[in-house]
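Input set for joint prediction.
Command: fold jointly, output tokens.
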Amino acid sequence: MRIILKYLLWFVGLVAMQTFVLDNLVLPGGFIIAFYTLFIFILPFNTPNNVLMIIGFALGLSIDALADTYGLNASAALTLAAIRPRLFRWFEPAIGYNEIQTPSLSQMGWNWCIKVYSLGILAFYTWYYMLGFLRISGIWFIGSKILLSSVSTVLVILLAQVLFRRKAKKNEL
Amino acid sequence: MQNVRSIFRYLRVFLIFVLLQGFALYLYFTSQLYPSIQFANSTKGISNSFVEVQHSYTKYFGLTEENRKLQKAYKTLLEKSPESFIRLDAKRASIEDTLFKQNYSYISGEVLRSSTHKANNFITANIGRKQGVKRGMGVINHDGLIGYVYEVSEHYCLVKTLLSENINIDVMLPNGQFGLLKWLGTNPNAVNITGIPNDTEVKIGALITTRGTGGIFPRGIAVGHVAEHNFAEGEANWDLRLKPAVNFGSVKHIYVVNHLHKAELDTLEASVLE
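tokens >
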């Protein structure tokens, strides 16, 4: 029960953060930081695939409703949620995943996180920009947007986790 | 048996993916068609209360600049009002001017949120059906053209800005030559105009204005200044690029254009065109 409440708070917090802060932040080059995708990564390892996809869809749809993107985020977040199990299987450590752990930076380490997050976010943005811009502009423009957005989003997600980890440790002491 | 079961499980996951993805794509692609049923956007229900809260904090940014612009607009209007003119003939009184009849009225509203960096950019404003806003009405501000009303609810409206695909607005050059405005979807500071033959002279910096067809915008509203002109490939037309007159990143107030004789115009045009 406490776990569900914790994730619910994360959900609301990330949606609020995305729509009130990050969506209003126009960076040079006009790319965006989809920080909310962090939620899909940090769900526990033993989340069933179906539940994962429904959560991803709901998350994307809440962003859509607030940012007037009409299903674009829902579609991309769902895709990310759908490939997450496959990604995790690819980078499974030799000892396997511990069911108690969560796929966060503090528990899985830098190496694993950078690989999994980068690939996941890259897939997310490829889907996102292909849908958003394909009919009106060229492949180079989309490519640069995908790359810039992916790199900055992965950096922000990792940074957020570093900050969060520090705080958690202080609380323990 | 084990195999069959795992195939079924895989199939179920796949089916849910296809269903949800289908729904998301349906929402996304139907939203591109103009007269469509919208499922969720910032003019509806819970999400507009979020938007209201956000606006209550952000509306104070840039207030000085906004005031300066409003004062300037008020000053120009004041200069045009009857009180600003000296009466030359004291015996004549103006009772009602029958030469001019009001053709456009304006509904003013505050911008709750806006975007500039998406494939389709919208502005949410705090005026809606109650204030007389209808779908398809033109939207301007004191700098120039913004777009048109895309969706209306009781108290809010969603404006599709120039920075959207399929925006297609009739515009004209200072010499009256007209073309069609489009956005390429890349740069919020560059809008394209097609359909202007390349034997007409176009100067860099020339002011492009609205043509005023269809009763959506009055004629002569500033759209932008020509920034670049190139020959369009394989056509006898200019490929014009212009910098919009409005800075979409900092729009605070808008005016929705209400054409008072739109219904009359529409029925007349429909009777001929069909």
